[in-house]
Amino acid sequence: MLKSLKGLVFFLITTIPIYAQSNIDCINDETLAKTSQKKMSEALKTADSLYKSSKNPLHKAQSLILSANLYQKKGDFKKAICYAENADVMIAKVNDPDLASRITEFLALQYRLVGLHERSKKYIIKGFKIAKKIKDPKRYNETQGVLNQELAHCEMELGNYPNAVKYLELSLGFFEKVGIIGEEVVTAASYRLLGDAYFKQNKYDLAENYYKKAEVLLKEPSCLLGWIYNGLGGIRLKQKQWKEAEIYLIKAEKIAENNHQLDLRKAVYANINDYYEGIEDAEKASLYAVKYVKMYEQINAKNNAFVNEKLNTEVSSRRNIQISIAKNIAIIILCIALGGLFVFFRSKQKKQRSKLRSILRSKQKFTENHKEESQNVDFCNISVEELDDKETDTAKKRSDSLMTAETETKLLELLNDFEKGNLYNNKNMSLPFLSGELNTNTKYLSYVINRHKSADFKSYINRLRINYIIDKLINDEKYRQYKISILAEECGFSSHSKFASVFKAVTDFSPSAYIKLLDAENQLDKSVHFQENN
Fold first, then answer.
1. CB crowding 322-360: b at 16 or more within 10 Å, else e
2. Cα–Cα 20 to 30 A to 363, which of 81, 85, 391, 533?
3. Helix/strand/coil for 308
4. Which segments cross the bilayer (predicted)?
């Protein structure tokens, strides 16, 4: 019995990592689909029994990485990382660079998938050091190929696409020397990443070439093929070849809908949204915008749930190591220090955000009171939704003479209450519409807005809408991930271009530039977060 269990361990730890690194989510989903819950539970119990029966650190490390792989297949990133971290501790007690390298590859991948890129890089660097001790040329090339592929992922996350291409070419060179079964899948994964890297650099011919190379190597529909079709569809969108784009995106969506990988669905929905916007089908574009946002929120919730939980809960149950009083004190002091740093950076970030709001409000007020006559953009001339608010000066003066002070005060109070809600984001907003909501007439309403809000009706609504979306961008990070067209729809604009023009006129920034400014502030949080995990 023990021999068969060891055979299972050897099979999993020697075959899973190399394939998992190339296209982990796709393979996990396909494997999980073929494995019943009962068999998965039995496999986990077997791995646990093997750990208890193991007498030395090497066998314990083997059983732990087996459990990690099983939890990885199950989609439980937290437990997969916990068991792999414990395996990393165990393998450090023996001289086995082969298994040690597989464990570091596994951890580098898992931390990247949950968004902890600095911690992932830590294990990549550790993996390169271990690889120098591997004597088997085949295993050495496998390790180098996987680690260079992981480095390419990291560079792409940072937007360093030329560096990503360099690492992917190195990765392919190492994989070509291996000659293992399944090399086609590994190579196809690198080709697909090269396609992505060139696509991001707007080199569409090169990108298509690598996507096609990857497609040829894949014999059956798979998650990886879904990514390739989505990439080819994206190229056709850029080239405005709508019919061909539709063909590829239909294929990509079919694979995505039959797959558990949320990232693939999110990417496919984004491209399909662009497709329908391109052919001016607003109804279907909105449908896929909603699907995209739903996927984004699910992915974000999943990653946040992992990051916010302590990884050492499951690890401590395996280690059974007595921690000395001195170490406990050191940990407490370290936690207090990290907590102090976190509070300091959080306080500093809040002050920066407060200052940013003040600057924006000051600029807005200045723009309202000092409009340029010629060269500067006047956002008052940009229609909200072709609003009918034209009145002559004579009509406005007549409103002044007809309106009582009591009526004017009451209408101003109603306007102030109106600003506290978000009715101004209604796409049907117009001067007659709002007059009806406030139970007044258009002349009175136009007069009060001009006199007390220092703007005509269009300018007034524009300002309220842009201030609304600014507050959302500042206070809710998920809005910074939305496409500009989704932000435009959120605050009532019917077109991307009109929203961008008004936004820049009000803030002096384009929407994308403003989001980058807020993200730059957010790096303070990230630096503290990575320190906690290192």
1. eeeeeeeeeeeeeeeeeeeebeebeeebeeeeeebeeeb
2. 391
3. coil
4. 325-345
226-237 pLDDT, tens digit each: 999 999 999 999
**Cα separation, 405 vs 62, whole angstroms:** 84
For the question of whether the overall pTM of this predicted structure is more than 0.85, the answer is no
**DSSP letters along 122-181, please?**
HHHHHHHHHHTT---HHHHHHHHHHHHHHHHHHHHHTT-HHHHHHHHHHHHHHHHHH--T
What is the average pLDDT across 349-354? Answer: 58
Tell me how far apart the alpha carbons of residues 435 and 346 are, in angstroms, rounded to a whole number: 44
Least confident of 131-140, 177-186, 314-323: 314-323
The predicted pLDDT at position 521 comes to 67
Query: How many CB atoms lie under 10 A from the CB of residue 466?
Result: 23
Closest CA to 91 of 79, 71, 105, 78: 105
Answer left, alpha or beta for residue 261, where phi above 0 means left and psi between -120 and 50 means alpha: beta
Burial bucket for residue 99 (CB in 10 Å: 0-12, 13-18, 19+)? buried
What is the set of domains in the chain, with CATH numbers?
Answer: 221-335 (no CATH), 421-527 (1.10.10.60)
Residue 85 half-sphere exposure, CB side, CA atoms within 13 Å? Answer: 23
Unique residue bearing structure tokens 């820049």: 504
Region for 159 from its dihedrals, namely left if φ exceeds 0, alpha if ψ lies in -120 to 50, beta otherwise? left
Average pLDDT value for residue range 386-396: 45
